[in-house]
């Protein structure tokens, strides 16, 4: 029996999932981690937090499930993308990791994005959150650190290094650096040189389901895992979620309705469309890619209204009743700027159409609609890139609102599939990658879709009304932008 461990490293902590060879979940353990914000727009984390969380989670599993841990054959990490973890020649961390949501390098990102080679080779806009502009910032502002930088690792690759002693990253995570030739699935020497770096400072690249190294004997002994256990390449968090939801091939994808909103579509080929601010990244399995549109404030928009009104989000949505046609009030969900399709870090949200008769329920409905229209923006960008969008899984905290899910289905004109309760996210995807690496199994056979509990269809009666409202939403961005 070959068990597998999936490690999901997020900015708020780490979750370890112990999975049996048949795909069933044996146990899990979670530990928190802290990020810091030393200046406005800065977001950093000590990589030691990741190691502490990993060791605590593994100790918990070793104590509670020693027999299952003794049968672990593979481990893989799903990590938050874009983080710049800088090591010296001795493998020691030089400074706190600069995280994905750090915006200090916006000027450097614009400078790199103005070089045609970056979009042409990487297939993506150079966003401020990506890794390459962070290193340009370090070179300008911390030159002594830049000069001492021997290796640049993403968070997941740092845990790979901790577990194996090898500098290895997977393709899906490397795709978010702006240094990867995403079509060729290799580092671009030209893009590295443009930021004063070389291939020697990068980790080796493997596919997410390939072997990256073997677990250090001392860790294997401490965790109660066989010394023969392998560590897989792993994956970026959204690629791992795609593996957990079985979104590997053209026509498969999901909506993640969390703090931010993601619409991800698996692609059978490489079809970059940088101008629309889509992310085009390598998948965690060989020969596949995925594209995703990202909006920065999805459930965060509802949470903002919750804080303003003093009511919990569920109480706000509970006031709405059955889905109805859009009202006069509209909300632009740009509380933290926007990614797809605007690539605008400075735009901010707005209500329009407010009147003396506007009530709390009207504002709630407008917020939900604004998020649905933001996801539609991503759907239009994906369709423009040739993506085939079929029925989509919908996951994340916002999917608990049937009203919101029906609205999104209607705005996107696509059925939304709600999985039954259970595991289907990034930790499961990482465990599946680990199992493939350990056993040589077929990723397609193993990474199946979860059992569907309910399918919510578009509301045919309201489709035209929402289509008209969406067209007004599209026209609103430029008008609001011009007065901010």
TrEMBL record:
Checking InterPro entries in the record gives:
ATPase_NBD, Carb_kinase_FGGY, Carb_kinase_FGGY_CS, FGGY_C, FGGY_Carb_Kinase, FGGY_N, Xylulokinase
Per the UniProt record, the site (Important for activity) maps to 8
User: Which ranges form a coiled coil?
Assistant: none
Keyword Thylakoid annotated? no
Q: Pfam families attached here?
A: FGGY_C, FGGY_N
Q: Does the keyword Kinase apply?
A: yes
Which reactions are catalysed by this chain?
Answer: D-xylulose + ATP = D-xylulose 5-phosphate + ADP + H(+)
Molecular function (GO) terms for this protein are: ATP binding; D-xylulokinase activity
Task: Give any single GO term for biological process.
Answer: xylulose catabolic process
Q: What is the purpose of this protein? A: Catalyzes the phosphorylation of D-xylulose to D-xylulose 5-phosphate.
Protein name, UniProt field: Xylulose kinase
**Which organism does this record belong to?**
Pseudooceanicola albus
């Amino acid at each position: 029996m070959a068990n597998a461990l999936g490690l999901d490293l997020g900015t708020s902590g780490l979750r370890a999932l112990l999975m049996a060879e048949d795909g069933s979940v044996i146990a899990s353990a979670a530990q928190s981690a802290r990020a810091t914000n030393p200046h406005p727009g800065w977001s950093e984390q000590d990589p030691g937090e990741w190691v502490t969380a990993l060791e605590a989670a593994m100790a918990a599993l070793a104590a509670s499930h020693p027999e299952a841990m003794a049968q672990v054959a593979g481990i893989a990490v799903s990590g938050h993308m874009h983080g710049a973890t800088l090591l010296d020649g001795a493998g020691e961390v030089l400074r706190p990791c600069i995280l994905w949501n750090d915006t200090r390098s916006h000027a450097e990102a614009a400078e790199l994005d103005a070089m045609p080679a970056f979009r042409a080779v990487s297939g993506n806009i150079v966003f401020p959150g990506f890794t390459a502009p962070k290193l340009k910032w370090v070179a300008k502002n911390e030159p002594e650190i830049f000069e001492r930088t021997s290796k640049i690792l993403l968070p997941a690759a740092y845990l790979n290094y901790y577990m194996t002693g090898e500098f290895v990253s997977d393709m899906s995570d490397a795709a978010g650096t702006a240094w990867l030739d995403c079509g060729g699935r290799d580092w671009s020497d030209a893009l590295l040189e443009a930021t004063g770096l070389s291939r020697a400072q990068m980790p080796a690249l493997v596919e997410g389901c390939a072997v990256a190294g073997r677990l250090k004997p001392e860790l294997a002994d401490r965790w109660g895992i066989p010394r023969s256990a392998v560590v897989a390449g792993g994956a970026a968090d959204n690629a791992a979620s795609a593996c957990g939801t079985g979104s590997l091939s053209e026509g498969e994808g999901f909506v993640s309705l969390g703090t931010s909103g993601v619409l991800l579509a698996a692609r059978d080929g490489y079809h970059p469309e940088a101008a629309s601010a889509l992310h085009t990244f390598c998948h965690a399995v060989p020969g596949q890619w995925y594209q995703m549109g990202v909006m920065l404030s999805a459930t965060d928009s509802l949470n903002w209204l919750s804080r303003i009104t003093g009511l919990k989000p569920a109480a706000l949505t509970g006031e709405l009743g059955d889905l109805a046609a859009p009202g006069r009030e509209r909300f632009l969900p740009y509380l933290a700027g926007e990614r797809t399709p605007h690539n605008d870090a400075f735009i901010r949200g707005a209500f329009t159409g407010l009147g003396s008769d506007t009530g709390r329920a009207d504002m709630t409905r407008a917020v939900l609609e604004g998020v649905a229209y933001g996801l539609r923006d991503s759907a239009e960008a994906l369709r423009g890139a040739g993506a085939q969008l079929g029925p989509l899984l919908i996951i994340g905290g916002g999917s608990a609102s049937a009203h919101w899910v029906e609205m999104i289905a209607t705005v996107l004109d696509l059925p939304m599939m709600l999985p039954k309760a259970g595991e289907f996210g990034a930790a499961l995807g990482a465990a599946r990658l680990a199992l493939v690496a350990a056993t040589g199994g077929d990723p397609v056979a193993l990474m199946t879709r979860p059992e569907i509990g309910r399918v919510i269809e578009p509301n045919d009666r309201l489709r035209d009304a929402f289509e008209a409202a969406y067209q007004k939403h599209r026209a609103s961005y430029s008008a609001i932008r011009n007065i901010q």
